[in-house]
Design goal:
The complex is a heterotetramer.
Chain A: E1 3-7, H1 11-21, E2 28-33, H2 44-49, H3 65-68, E3 71-75, E4 79-83, E5 88-91, E6 96-98, E7 101-104, E8 108-111, E9 124-126, H4 130-139, E10 145-149, H5 153-162, E11 168-173, H6 185-197, E12 200-204, E13 208-212, E14 215-218, E15 223-225, E16 228-231, E17 234-237, H7 240-245, E18 253-254, E19 266-268, E20 273-277, E21 282-284, H8 289-303, E22 316-321, E23 324-330, E24 337-342, E25 347-353, E26 356-363, H9 370-378, H10 387-392, H11 401-409
Parallel strand pairs in A: 1-2, 1-7, 2-3, 7-19, 9-16, 10-11, 10-16, 11-12, 18-20
Antiparallel strand pairs in A: 4-5, 5-6, 8-17, 13-14, 14-15, 20-21, 22-23, 23-26, 24-25, 25-26
Chain C: E1 2-6, H1 16-24, H2 31-35, E2 45-48, E3 54-57, H3 66-70, E4 76-79, E5 82-85, H4 95-99, E6 106-107, E7 113-114, H5 128-132, E8 138-142
Antiparallel strand pairs in C: 1-8, 2-3, 4-5, 6-7
Chain D: E1 12-21, E2 27-28, H1 30-36, E3 48-53, E4 63-69, H2 72-85, E5 86-93, E6 107-115, H3 117-123, H4 127-141, E7 145-149, E8 154-159, H5 163-169, E9 176-177, E10 179-187, E11 200-202, E12 205-211, H6 216-223, H7 235-249, H8 254-261, H9 266-270, H10 274-286, E13 296-302, E14 305-310, E15 319-323, E16 326-330, H11 333-339, E17 345-347, E18 355-358
Antiparallel strand pairs in D: 1-10, 1-16, 2-9, 3-8, 3-10, 4-6, 4-7, 5-6, 11-12, 12-13, 13-14, 14-18, 15-16, 15-17
The chains are: A alpha/beta, B alpha/beta, C alpha+beta, D alpha+beta.
Chain lengths: 412, 498, 144, 364
């Protein structure tokens, strides 16, 4: 019997629970959830606003999930300290919990840069949690003018979510383009155009220098009137617990393929971690859902004495606005070659280096892109596939008869 | 001269979902999709009414109908006759046809009815009682002999053992596809019967079905060598074919490709022409020599079948064969199928199998030599009742080919000679051959024969007969309807009501 | 468990599997009504290789499925070995499309994800592509 | 016009009965006649008959021809033919008892003959073959003459009428035989003809048969290849010829003959030992056309014994009883109980399983 403790209650935690239970069913698992909700996937909050999901459907797992898996959830409390020597965690209530294996799945938190007069803005929100969302929902009316600071994934998804609920949305960002973390100028321009066509206004390449009441004064001199302010500038990994306990932390918590931290029997998974990107060959924070679950699962398996590695992580994103989807994956390393195919409504950019597909950006054409993703993830030598055909469209046909035979005639 | 096409493609556009399966599946390229109009169009002049498109259309949006555009009505000069004259006037060539004679000549099977037991003896229920259909084919000695200890000497001349009195008759590899042969071979093995290689040799892949294979030796001797002769369970000397008595065969060079040419041992792309006669058989005594040459070559292990077309003096011919050393006579009636034959010959030469069979069986009995040979009859055996009637007339077993082709998907469009069989049977085009999956083809053949066997048993049971031997030559079980005295006399049966 | 396997040597490239799939999952009882004048969104796709060989590709029901692990809505799950999608939960983020290495999860006409569920949830009860294949090129069977 | 016997095939139901002493004890015909009485309803008065073995000990070396003649002209013609091939040893009336139940009687003669050796030498055949040929010739060729019995030391007695009446008519109580068979006929579409009554005989083989075989024409057309002429178109006739062909011409044993006529099913054969399997397979393969199907129970009588056989599905009743040296066989147990009221051992043989009874060597 082991005592498993999981800090956090997001999908990494769910993955961790399922990972543990794929190995054993005896030991107790305790989850410490700061939020008062059972596990949900944070990206769903914009879909909540958009009414594509609701408070029932938003749950990541069934209502019986914790009971079925023998998990005790401590809601509304947070961990203030990990003592790696004594192997216990301390909660904000002062109580301590011993552990034999610990998973730090603390995720990330919004980062709000200091802005003059911000504290005086009454209706200001971050957009990370369900509670943020419920509060924002209360605040907006059909007449609201919304100003969103940050044209990244979170800001834009928030814009899409609010679109039908409010009168006007303006998104501003210091960066000169939207989705600057995943798209290049050309792709970003196409997405921006599409967003604008759907009524989202942009104010890019500048930031708010001062708020006066419901007026934002921009650095370039413009002023924007708003009723509701959403701050979506960025996020930061929650690394403090590990760092304070003496674990190695860079920008995120450093973990290996087994999701181990540098502390004994302490694992970390999800948005709080920094790990190896095979597409670029560098360590980085890849705060995205599939990786969070996979890391959580791997950490769970390893905590329970099994063995599971996540050694093919790559950054990737599937994001869409108003019906236009954008798929990106991998990276664009120095010296890579870009192969492009584009028209008015679609862009396909494939990045190739050293006989490998290192990454891609696709807008519009997202049919079967998983085949490209697999090439990036598996670092498949392009000389072994029919890349000319693949460039035209992703297809099993181009991966060779041997691969096809394995996939279509066997159990995968 | 241009004709209005024989068939019309009727497409119910309100049902067409543009899946384009018709376009993809027509080897004759009748259908095509017009991207501009987003509509499927057809060139009906190419249609042979094989029904592939009709069969595959998932919404039943298609039908093929006979065109009602006719030449002026003429009972003497039919449309067909006139069009054939036009075609010949244009090409100067012999007209070619495929499959069996389609003309409305008498089908005696349909004028013969089968008996059933009432009151004086009981019908037998095949679901409750054993009902035997096993048949041996081969020569039976005049007399038994005993070993020194008085026990029976149970050795017999080579025999074929069939679980039911039906075999798949000769269709050469070349005239039909690899997959068709694979289907037939597997089905024969599964059923415990035999299939026949035809005159094109035996593909190396099918040697493993040898114990269910009859290897044929025809006038062209294509693919005949020692291993081939020894590979099968019996050897058939093909003297003639019901669909084209008196002429040889012609496999067009377009079908003699790849493994076909290799199996036939002829150069790729060359026409395979088998001569009208066997040039070493100009008389019955020559046949005897060939029979014994083949027996000698295979150490008397295998029965030898002599296959002849049903022609006017078939009884005398059969009598000769029965005395030639042959073990089995196969008689092929004039309605039998072919992969290609001159139309005039197919439609005008030979006699019906029913009359030929009755005449041969009677003659051999009259001469007391019926036991010298088994009789296999073919040439349009279409159903279990045809089989039962044939056995009652005196056949030991039947050969079926057209029915087997139908089981494999053939729709009797009679275009085998074009080599573009849309059902993957009478073609060598790889994309078309692929359409016959032997896994399916063999199961359908097995199903068909299983069904026939059940029906044969039902019919036998009705007659109060529980073993097929007791049906053979049991002509009392048959009555004719609407037949002349002469026809009844030849068939050796009474008229219904007698 | 039984899975769909492809015998490409018998695939005729007729594409009927795609139409049968689209029809089977239309919820309608008449194919004409279901498919007439509509773009079809089948869950099985016929591919053609460089030699002109065709074959149908549909979900392989992987034992370690990336799509299930990647689903942000928890809409994808494995039930008795069958990877199923809860269309009611799917929000259409298409992450599953981005991760499926076989290209077997695709967007449907409503913009959410769909995939082969072996016709377990429609009235067919067994894969319609298999039942409708005219040449036995798709089979539904148990394999190791 | 109603067709005559031989012009049409006649299916008929019947009663059979037999008794035999294994010790060769000779018993008069009283018992066998009585045995047919309880089975009266199995006949319809259109034929009855008996065969008796061991009745002519004093003429044991001569063939006893029992012959019907329509008139004296026929008789003269037939006797002339016989004289060409045989020495006539004795030519007499068969004594009958006039009775109202039996009418339309033909001339009934008994002729003991001996084949002429010169004829046998000339034709290069044995005497049995000569008898068969000449009998076939008379029966098929001479209108108005019909040899209905032609074995040695045995004889058939038959007529149109109920069997018990026929027995009385022929005064069978005056004959003593170690083996008796009897038959009552129920033909369905004939006026009845004396020659068509059973038993049917060839040489010393006699057949009484109850049933309607479905293999008739297959059997007939085969057997006719070997010189037999099935003029009566009855089952009994063809079965007799089959028995003659297999036993005499092919030299099969009774058991082997039974395995041809009522061959074991293939499934049964498959369960046998290798040697039996070979034998049964051989016999079915060799004589497929002599398999008899459809319902039958037959009793084949011959000098020195008899064999009873049912079709392989046992579609007709037949029971066997045994007491001391006597064996009884009949369509119904009631018939046996008439012949042996105290009998204990009675059983019903399985379909296709021959019951062969032989009189002790030297006792007949």
């Amino acid at each position: 019997m082991k005592r498993y403790v999981i800090i956090g209650n997001g999908v990494a935690a769910a993955g961790c629970i399922e990972g543990i239970r794929s190995v054993e069913h005896e030991s107790e698992i305790t989850v410490i959830s700061a939020e008062e909700h059972p596990v949900y996937c944070r990206p769903l909050i914009s879909y909540y606003l958009e009414k594509k999901t609701d408070l029932q459907r938003i749950n990541y797992r069934s209502p019986a999930f914790y009971a079925d898996n023998g998990v005790k959830v401590i809601y509304g409390k947070s961990v203030t300290k990990i003592n790696a020597d004594t192997r216990q965690v301390t909660l904000n209530t002062g109580e301590t919990l011993p552990y034999d294996a610990l998973c730090n799945a603390t995720g990330s938190a919004p980062f709000v840069p200091p802005m003059k007069g911000l504290e005086k803005v009454k209706k200001q929100f971050t957009f990370m949690t369900l509670d943020d969302t419920l509060a924002l929902e209360q605040a907006v009316t059909p007449e609201s003018r919304v100003l969103i600071i940050g044209a990244g994934l979170i800001g834009l998804k928030c814009a899409e979510g609010l679109h039908k609920r409010v009168a006007e949305i303006t998104v501003c960002d210091l960066a000169p383009r939207v989705l600057s973390s995943i798209l290049d100028d050309t792709c970003a321009a196409m997405m921006q155009k599409h967003l604008e066509a759907n009524g989202i206004q942009f104010c890019l390449g500048t930031s708010a220098s001062e708020f006066t009441g419901n007026k934002a004064k921009m650095q370039d001199g413009r002023t924007i009137d708003f009723d509701v302010l959403v701050l979506a500038v960025g996020v930061r990994p929650n690394t403090a617990l590990i760092q304070e306990a003496g674990g190695k932390v860079n920008r995120g918590i450093l973990v290996d393929a087994k999701c181990s931290t540098s502390l004994p029997d302490v694992y970390a998974a999800g948005d709080c971690t920094e790990y190896h990107d095979v597409s670029s060959g560098t360590d980085k924070i890849m705060a995205l859902m599939p990786n969070a679950y996979i890391q959580g699962h791997a950490s769970g398996v390893n905590m329970a004495g099994g063995s599971e590695s996540f050694d093919c992580a790559i950054p990737m994103n599937s994001i869409g606005f108003f019906g236009l989807h954008c798929h990106t994956a991998g990276s664009q390393p120095e010296g890579c070659q870009m192969l492009e195919e584009a028209d008015e409504e679609h862009i396909k950019r494939l990045f190739v280096k050293d006989d490998r597909l290192t990454g891609f950006m696709l807008i519009g054409h997202t049919h079967r892109t998983g085949i490209y993703t697999a090439l990036v993830r598996n670092q498949t030598p392009l000389s072994t596939v029919d890349f000319e055909r693949l460039k035209i469209e992703p297809q099993i046909a181009a991966l060779g008869k041997e691969h096809r035979s394995r996939v279509l005639k066997g159990v995968i | 001269m241009n004709f209005y096409p024989e068939f019309e493609v009727v497409r119910n556009d309100s049902r067409c979902v543009r899946c384009r399966v018709c376009e993809r599946q027509c080897a004759n390229e009748v259908h095509w999709y017009d991207e501009d109009g987003k509509i499927l169009l057809s060139d009906e002049s190419k249609c042979v009414n094989c029904q592939r498109c009709v069969s595959l259309c998932p919404t039943r949006a298609l039908k093929i109908v006979k065109s009602d555009c006719r030449l002026r009505e003429n009972a003497n000069y039919s449309d067909q006759t006139i069009k054939e004259i036009y075609r010949q006037a244009e090409t100067g060539g012999v007209l070619l046809s495929s499959m069996g004679n389609p003309n409305p000549l008498p089908v005696y099977w349909d004028k013969i009815l089968i008996n059933a037991s009432q009151v004086t003896n009981p019908p037998i229920d095949p679901l409750r009682e054993p009902m035997e259909t096993k048949v041996f084919l081969g020569k039976k000695p005049e007399k038994i002999s005993r070993n020194e200890d008085g026990t029976l000497n149970t050795e017999l001349p080579p025999q074929l053992s069939l679980t039911m009195p039906v075999m798949f008759s000769a269709m050469s590899y070349g005239s039909i596809s690899y997959n068709a042969h694979a289907s037939l071979a597997r089905a024969a093995e599964k059923l415990g019967i035999y299939y026949n290689t035809g005159e094109g040799g035996l593909h190396e892949d099918f040697y493993r079905f040898g114990k269910n294979t009859i290897v044929q030796v025809a006038s062209g001797r294509f693919g005949v060598h020692k291993d081939y002769l020894e590979a099968g369970a019996a050897i058939e000397i093909k003297m003639g074919q019901g669909a084209k008595p008196g002429i040889g065969g012609h496999l067009p060079g377009t079908k003699a490709v790849g493994d076909v040419s290799k199996t036939r041992m002829i150069p790729e792309g060359s026409d395979a022409i088998s001569p009208a006669p066997h040039h070493d058989i100009y008389s019955i005594e020559d046949l005897r020599q060939l029979v014994f040459s083949l027996k000698e070559a295979t150490e008397y292990r295998l029965p030898v079948i002599v296959k002849v077309a049903a022609v006017h003096n078939i009884a005398a011919i059969a009598s000769g064969i029965a005395r030639s050393g042959a073990d089995i006579i196969a008689i092929d009636g004039f309605r039998g199928g072919t992969g290609a034959a001159p139309t005039r010959i197919r439609d005008n030469v030979g006699i019906p199998i029913e009359l030929a069979l009755a005449a041969v069986d009677k003659r051999l009995r009259d001469e007391g030599i019926r036991n010298n040979v088994s009789i296999v009859c073919g040439g349009s055996i279409r159903s279990a009742s045809d089989v039962v009637k044939a056995i009652a007339l005196g056949a030991d077993a039947c050969y079926v080919a057209t029915a087997a082709c139908l089981a494999m998907g053939c729709h009797l469009c009679r275009s085998c000679h074009t080599g573009k069989c849309n059902w993957g049977i009478a073609t060598q085009r790889p994309d078309l051959v692929k359409r016959l999956n032997p896994e399916i083809g063999y199961k359908r053949l097995v199903n068909l024969m299983d069904a026939w066997r059940h029906e044969i048993k039902e019919l036998m049971g009705g007659m109060g007969i529980n073993s097929i031997e007791a049906l053979r030559g049991n002509r009392l079980m048959l009555r004719g309807v609407g037949l002349t005295e002469k026809e009844l006399e030849i068939l050796g049966i009474g008229h219904a009501g007698e | 468990m039984k899975r769909i396997f492809v015998k490409e040597e018998w695939c005729l490239g007729c594409h009927l599997c795609e139409y049968n799939c689209a029809f089977a999952n239309s919820g309608l009882t008449d194919m004409v009504k279901a498919l007439k004048d509509k773009k079809i969104y089948p869950r099985v796709r016929v591919e053609t290789d460089e030699d002109g060989i065709t074959y149908a590709v549909s979900c392989r029901h992987c034992t370690n499925p990336l799509c299930v692990k990647s689903c942000i809505a928890g809409a994808l799950s494995i039930q008795d070995g069958v990877i199923q999608i809860d269309h009611n939960k799917c929000v259409g983020c298409l992450t599953c499309v981005l991760v499926c290495p076989h290209g077997a999860v695709v967007e449907d006409e409503k913009g959410i994800a769909q995939k082969c569920e072996l016709c377990m949830k429609n009235s067919c009860g067994a894969p319609a592509c298999v039942a409708g294949c005219p040449n036995g090129a798709i089979v539904y069977e148990e394999r190791e | 016009m109603i067709p005559l016997e031989g012009q049409v095939r006649i299916p008929s139901g019947c009663a059979v009965s037999a008794m035999i002493s294994k010790d060769g004890k000779r018993l008069n015909g009283e018992s066998i006649i009585e045995s047919m009485v309880p089975m009266h309803d199995r006949s319809n008065g259109l034929g009855g008959g008996f065969a008796a073995y061991g009745i002519y000990p004093e003429y044991r070396d001569f063939y006893a021809f029992h012959i019907f003649f329509n008139d004296t002209q026929c008789q003269k013609e037939c006797m002339n033919l016989l004289k060409e091939y045989f020495e006539i040893v004795q030519d007499e009336h068969i004594k009958v008892r006039k009775m109202p139940q039996i009418t339309d009687e033909p001339i009934i003669r008994r002729v003991f003959v001996s084949p002429m050796q010169s004829v046998l030498r000339h034709l290069q055949i044995d005497e049995k073959e000569l008898v068969v040929r000449i009998v076939n010739r008379i029966n098929a060729g001479l209108n108005g003459s019909y040899v209905f019995s032609c074995g040695k030391n045995m004889g058939a007695f038959k007529a149109v009428g109920f069997p018990e009446d026929v027995g009385r008519y022929y005064r069978l109580e005056e004959y003593e035989a170690y083996s008796w068979t009897a038959h009552g006929r129920y033909p369905t579409n004939t006026p009845g003809w004396w020659g068509g009554a059973h038993p049917f005989c060839m040489l010393d083989y006699s057949i009484v048969h109850n049933g309607e075989i479905s293999s008739y024409d297959a059997n007939r057309r085969f057997i006719e290849m070997y010189g037999y002429k099935c003029t009566l178109q009855t089952d009994t006739e063809v079965i007799t010829y089959i028995a003659d062909y297999l036993l005499r011409r092919q030299g099969l044993t009774l058991e082997e003959t039974a395995s041809v006529i009522a061959a074991p099913f293939w499934t049964t054969i498959d369960s046998k030992s290798e040697q039996e399997k070979n034998t049964y397979t051989y016999l079915r393969n060799m004589f497929p056309s002599l398999l008899v199907t459809g319902p039958f129970s037959i009793i084949l009588g011959f000098n020195g014994g008899l064999m009873a056989l049912n079709d392989r599905l046992k579609l007709r009743s037949m029971v066997v009883g045994e007491q001391d040296d006597m064996v009884y066989i009949a369509s119904e147990e009631a018939a046996i109980r008439v012949m042996a009221p105290d009998i204990q051992k009675i059983w019903s043989p399985a379909g296709g399983e021959p019951v062969i009874v032989k009189v002790k060597e030297g006792a007949f």
